[in-house]
Structures are given as structure tokens and as C-alpha cells.
From TrEMBL:
Annotated family: Belongs to the RINT1 family.
Gene3D superfamilies assigned to the protein according to its UniProt record, in alphabetical order: Dsl1p vesicle tethering complex, Tip20p subunit, domain D
Gene: RINT1
GO biological process, alphabetically ordered: endoplasmic reticulum to Golgi vesicle-mediated transport; regulation of ER to Golgi vesicle-mediated transport; retrograde vesicle-mediated transport, Golgi to endoplasmic reticulum
Any Gene Ontology CC annotation: Dsl1/NZR complex
InterPro entries: EXOC6PINT-1/Sec15/Tip20_C_dom2 (IPR042044), RINT1_Tip20 (IPR007528)
Protein name in the entry: RAD50-interacting protein 1
Amino acid sequence: MHVPESAELFITLLLTMTERYCHVPDKDCQVSFLELQLELLDDFRLRLHQLSQCQMQETIQASYCGIMNAIHYIQTVLEEWNNLPFFLQLYSYKKRKSMCESLLRDTEKHLSSIKKKDLQPSTSTEEELETSVFDEVIGLYQHMLNDLLQTMCDRVMLDIKAKSRSYRKEKWFYMFVIEDKKLMEISLSAYPMLEVINSSLHSLQELLAKPLFTKIWQQIAVELNIYIFEEVILQNSFSEGGATQFHFDMTRNLFPIFGVYTTKPENYF
């Protein structure tokens, strides 16, 4: 996993805090430390968001990918912590305390709740612990990560579209059939488009954590499929030779680029 040093140090800080306050006998004190951790997590997320808004000089920038890796790493760690007994118990205590304080502030509501408890079965322990303390912050990190992944995908697609102009304008209706399929070659106008696809995917694979790269190459494949269908197939007329050439470009040249990352690239096109 590509883990930026800043994210690793931040998680180490949170872990050190947890190791110290988990032995404190006072639950209220533990909750206070937990709330401090949640504030730190939110501050760190906002800082990452600020950094992600800096103008990118290149389509694929290492620092931008590093931000996504940091978010992914923190989110993965928090999802693991979410299932730890210590945090589950602390969440349960915090939730019960919050409910009690709310009931005490409103006597009438308190009495109404007591009546409901008499009529309804008590909440099981499993239901009380079905969520945990980090759910909200994990959701915020995930939302930010989705936005960054989509932004990166959009930037890559802009490059692909820019390099595909000549390919879109090919005279597909004027191409003749090549009888000997062994003599077929890739369309010259496809080279720039395929080159930027290949180089972009390679760079992303080098810079992103594997789960993130898997998401983004699949998203690029989906959007590329739509783009080729709408801008090449629907916008042109094809002779038999043109259709054969287009099929050759796709199956023998585009698909193998994605074939490095999946055994069935044709499923995405």
C-alpha cells in the first residue's frame, strides 16, 4: 500500500493517544479523548481538502495521488478500529449517556420514553452496537475520496479526448476491406489516443494504492467506452472496411492496454 509519511505519522499519533487513554478508569474522560481524536481527524481531512485544491501543473501529479492514498489509508485504519471492542463499548456508553442527558432535559419526554419501553421490547446489545464512533468521519473521508477520484478521471479523459480528435474524424466510410487480416495495422490516428491511455494508466498504477487504481481504471474504461460509442460510432458512417478497421483498433490495440489489469477487458467495452 502506498502510505504517505504524513498519514502514517498522523495515525501513529491517534494510536498513541488511544493506547494511553484506554487505561483511564473514568469513561467520561475516555469519551473526551475520543472526541478530541474525532476533531483531529476532521481537521486533518480539511487540510487534505485544502491541499487538493491547489492548482495541478500536470494531469497526473504525485502530490495529488498522495492525498488520495492518505485518505484511503486513514479510512482503512478507521474501518478496522470501528470493530474493536474498546471503541464499540465506548460508543455504546457515549450513546447511552447522550440519551440520558436528553431525557433529563425534558421530563415529559422522559416519561413518554418510559411508557414506550414498557410496551416495546428493549433494544438488544447487537442493535446498540450496529454503528460505531468513526462512521461519520469515515463517510466524510469517503465522500472526499470519491470526488478526488472523479476529478482525476475527468482530467485523464480530457487528455484522451484531446488526443482522439483525428481518430474521430477518420474517413471510416471510405476504407476498403483488407482481405488478408495478417496485413492489418493499427490506424495511424489512433496512436496518440492509445499512447495517452497507456501512459496515464501506467502512471496511476505507479502512484496509487491498488484498490484506488482498480477503481479509477475501471471508471476510465467505462467513460472511455461511452465516449467512443457517442463520438466515434454514432457520429460516423462505416463501410465494411471501416468497421473491420475499427474493430481491429479496439480488440487488438485498445483492449490489450486494459488487459494488463483484467483478464476480460472486453467486459468494459
